[in-house]
Amino acid sequence: MKFINVAIKDFKELIRDRRGLFMILLFPLFFMVIFGFAFEDMGKSNEPHNLAVVNLDEGAKMPLTNDEVNYGDNLTKIISDAEYEDSDVKLFKVTETSESSADQLIQLKEVDAIIIIPKNFSQSIVDLIKSSITAQTMGTTIPSEYRDNTTLKLVIRGDSSSIAFGVSQAMLVKIVEEYQNGLVASIQNQASGTSGGSIKIFESDVESVAGTESFSQFDFLAPGMMVFAILLLSTTVGASLTREVEKGTLARLKLSKMRSFDMLFGALLPWSAIAALQVLILLITAIIMGFNWQGGLNSILLAMLIGVIGGIASIALGMIIASFAKNDQQASNLGILIAIPISFLVGAFFPLPQVVIGEFMGRTFEFYDILPWTHILDALRTVLIYGEGWDAITYDMGWSILLTAIIFIIGVLLFSKLRLSVDN
Amino acid sequence: MEDYIINAQDLTKSFDGFKAVDGLNLKIRRGEVFGFLGPNGAGKTTSIRMIVGLLRPTSGQILIDGQDINKVDKSKIGICPQDIVLWESLTCQESLKFMGEMYEVPEDILKKRVERLLNDLLLTEKADTIVSNLSGGMKRRLNLAMALIHSPEIVVMDEPSEGLDPQSRRVLWNFIRSLRDKEGKTVILTTHLMDEADGLSDRIAIIDHGKLLRLDTPHNLKKEIGEGDVVHMHLSDPDKNLEVINHLKNMDIIDAVMEIEGKINIRTLNAVGKLPEIMAELQDLDVEVEDLFLRPNTLEDVFIELTGTSLRE
Hints:
heterodimer, A: abc type-2 transporter like fold, 5-stranded mixed β-sheet, B: alpha/beta, Alpha-Beta Plaits, 2 domains, 4-stranded antiparallel β-sheet, 10 helices, 35% helix
């Protein structure tokens, strides 16, 4: 278990180098505060967002009266008519279209989001009404498949790196929630006397988001800042590993029974802790600066876990840098030269144009998706801005873990070959 | 049969065509202090790095106890590098403990060994001091302790007294002697200090231009260039040095005579008894001696005789 001894030693060195630690933790914090002030009010303007509605609802017949109803049309109208709070500006400029052309509109950036209403939307609601009437007359409860329906899905789709999509999505979720609450109330009224408890008619793929009116550009920048801070770790890790080479302490360790694994895995532990700490400190700073943080304590823990994985990717990048840099100054420069362009590439500062290279598991795979930090950023946004849980980020986490593992293996192989083997 | 712990066979190391070490053959006995002498750039550090397994030779082989260096148990060798190689933000105790852990020294043994090394190298009071707050001499002593924490059979010290004051040097020398005498360790020592090599080493190898020039006991080496004394003579008129040297060379009682730094350097046995005869010869030549002093032969004389006086970088 020599890697634990290495980790303890690295940890002691880290916390005793007050100035270094101060720089690691405060430098990104400084950025966060600057961006917080700069972008606090940006994006708050009350402009209608472009929305494509794909209404596949085939309608249904109401029980008893046999009237033709279409809840999809009803929801579309509500979305079209919705206005900003205390204003007569509409929330959305709605274009009704087919699913394929809606996807095209997203790619052309002509709409910010798509909402797809499924074809059995009305039928499912009617079925629920029927079952609640049955339950009332029979004196039983509504069967669970109607009470907690997770198969009926309203899909909200868009480019997750776009700010406008984030805002539209949050607004749509709110409208859908209200619509659902309204429907449930009316059904329960009709079927009063049933012990139905809470009823869920359909599930939208994002859950409740509050305070949508105040979304600003800063909300999208804050997770970006966290990824930027995590990426900068590669610089510090690279410099610290290069210092071991330069000062000869690595040669000392090479003569001992320590293996590459012990040294590099040992370094991983304290630096991952730093990554998690960075996410926490930056989140607190961002919240103070007006970040609309969603989700509870769990989302903080989840964000820290995401930070750790991003941190490991950065540590691996640091190993690659340390395999080539001649001294710690060079490692720092090289690190900055690599970390800053990557921050731009993963969209930490602003969204980038789409560069789709294929499709994977029903999602477009973009050029930037080959970098683990892109997925780290998406996951952080999903958790912190939309208050989502693990289920919503499994795709991104899967990719980021896979890509991080690849970079880590490359880092370990390079460092072992170029720095830890016998000199030639 | 003699018991050799290290056997370097035909060791060669080339860097971009330059031969830093050229066909070096060395056999080091178990339990001896082995001095490694040579001017700067002679190939000492390169040889040492190959012997401890940090550098791959271009050709040749190093056997430790008959086993190839690449297969040898790493805890057999301890190296104290020329530069101070320490983790600046750890304390003395933490540094030693960490290094011991890297050599898989069992915890109970490690604890005792850390205490003993700190005590032997006069660092007990500084056990909990951060390395960056230690004085230069203390850092040097800790640097040495780090090489011994796993109790290696072979201890390699690359210029260990560099930058030490005379007091610290004495502590170090006694420590090196005790490593050999009390613990039976083999010590390989590179140094520029001739008195250090002379006083500590059982045998000395002198290398230059990557080649082994001599390998013998200090006593035999000194005997080789003339047992006895050295007379330094400074003439009032140094232009006459050459003339005087030519005359003195013909005298049977003188072993060797050469010019070093503008002075005449005469080597002979029992110089005091021969001095009147030498002075008479000088009188005949009508040269005036401004200054003269006499000392016993040293290792430095051997070194200069073998490697010359030209400056190395």
